[in-house]
């Protein structure tokens, strides 16, 4: 990965329960919670429980069961949050040019209004 994993990053601290979060889903592989600064009516973050910075890091080092567990959790959160109809958007920012602020892999899920057309 571009960035080294930092055990004191904010999502690591949320995982350890050192910082409160509004949790919406948790299992062995993933934790989901509301973004503190929502950019849509619904804005949830889903993170893997392992120490991964990015998608490239995660898919290089995680096992298939762990990857499947995390990806499955993303879809499950969208379903359980009632986003399937009328729809939602997934986003991961990675690295400096990607605008990543927190160096722990995360997927944003946005929903709750027409999100418009976004290429980049
Ligand atoms: P990034 O820019 O790295 O893709 O997104 C980081 C996201 O984490 C931002 O949307 C930001 O609002 C969110 N965030 C930052 N600090 C906290 C926090 O302490 N709690 C929660 N719930 N979200 C946070």
TrEMBL record:
Motif (Histidine triad motif): 104-108
PROSITE patterns: HIT_1, HIT_2
Domain HIT: 10-120
InterPro entries: Histidine_triad_CS, Histidine_triad_HIT, HIT-like
Pfam families, sorted: HIT
Transmembrane portions of the chain: none
PANTHER family in the record: HISTIDINE TRIAD HIT PROTEIN
Protein name in UniProt: Histidine triad nucleotide-binding protein
Species of provenance: Sphingomonas quercus
């Amino acid at each position: 990965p571009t960035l080294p994993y930092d055990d004191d990053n904010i999502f690591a601290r949320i995982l350890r329960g050192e910082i409160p979060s509004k949790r919406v889903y948790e299992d062995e592989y993933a934790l989901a919670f509301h973004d503190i600064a929502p950019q849509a009516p619904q804005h949830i973050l889903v993170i893997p429980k392992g120490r991964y910075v990015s998608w490239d890091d995660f898919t290089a080092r995680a096992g298939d069961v762990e990857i499947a567990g995390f990806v499955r959790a993303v879809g499950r959160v969208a379903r359980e949050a009632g986003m399937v109809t009328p729809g939602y958007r997934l986003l991961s920012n990675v690295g400096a040019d990607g605008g990543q602020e927190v160096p722990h892999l995360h997927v944003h899920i946005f929903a709750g209004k027409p999100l418009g057309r976004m290429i980049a």
